[in-house]
Amino acid sequence: MHTDWIDEFLGLMTGSTITLDAIERAHQLKDKNLPDKLYKFRAINDYAISNFETDTVWLCSADKYNDPYECATTWSTEELLRQAGKVDFDKISRQAKLEEHLSATEMDTVRASFDPMEQIIRLMVEKNERIPKKAKEKESSVLLDALSSRARETTIPGLNRFVQQGTRICSFSARVDSTVMWGHYADKHTGFAIEYDVTSWPDGEIRRRMLYPVVYRRELFDATKYLLQAIPKKDFNNLYGLIAAIHKSPDWSYENEWRFVLLWDEAFPNRNYPMPKPSAVYVGSRITPENKARLSEIAAKKRIPIYRMDLSTSEFKLVPHEMESTENRE
User: Fold this and answer.
1) Which residues contact 139 (CB under 8 A, 6 or more apart)?
2) pTM of the model
3) pLDDT averaged per 10 residues in sequence order, the chain, 330 residues
4) From CA 123, how far away is CA 156, in angstroms rounded?
5) Residue extents of the structural domains in the chain
6) Which residues contact 326 (CB under 8 A, 6 or more apart)?
């Protein structure tokens, strides 16, 4: 998959704010680079067979996937605490009853400071006579680190779970000949893969719109700039959850994944989602004769070809061969 265009796509989609024009340009760019074919790998079971028969795929929340980092983001708690201290100082002051501990002059100093939360802690430590003077700087640093760590531990996992539960995903691969994919997602080569011809999907088709490439990066997607915009209730790019949903670790790059991503709230049920008719179906090299016949019958009704993935005798490679009509009648 050629990925030179992805940086431009991300540049259009990842501003702290976003315009409809930028969204449309990003989708036009993506649409020009959609893969010709996509493949859905399945183990043999009643759910998978039903999806094949009814031209549907299973669309479910990201927390049901096998990667615990699905849709995960990170952010700078220090920057967010600083912003919250500026924007919500009066609220924080009332809740902490700061006026009982700080003078009016000190309150004004805190309010005008670069980092109100840090300034509050330093003033409170300075006023605490039980802390030795030589230890005050260290104590302030310890408390600031503890505040930041506590904020990180309580907010990041919770928000990530919320985003996972509200995001619906269905994964595809741009490759049908990956030995690893057949091993992991088609039950050790005993399952099958459904092929979809993306080139046959008409312009403006909703499935073209909701299909995104997965971006493989070492670092978690950083949501700091979006949350900084959101704290003062300013206009911000509320599509950042979508971009988080297409970021994954390079450990998963063998999947060559594209995925449907829909941002809904968690009340929207997991469901079968309608698809265009498949263009072909592939069966694993270890599929049983019974399951091969079962899939062949469905393929014949749909009037689509069926291929068997054979092992190359000269290299580590899976090679598709169209099954003859005699095989279809087995």
Assistant:
1) 125, 131
2) 0.84
3) 85 94 97 98 98 97 95 90 81 82 85 84 84 86 84 84 93 98 98 98 94 97 91 84 96 97 80 97 98 96 97 95 62
4) 28
5) 4-71+161-328, 77-156
6) none
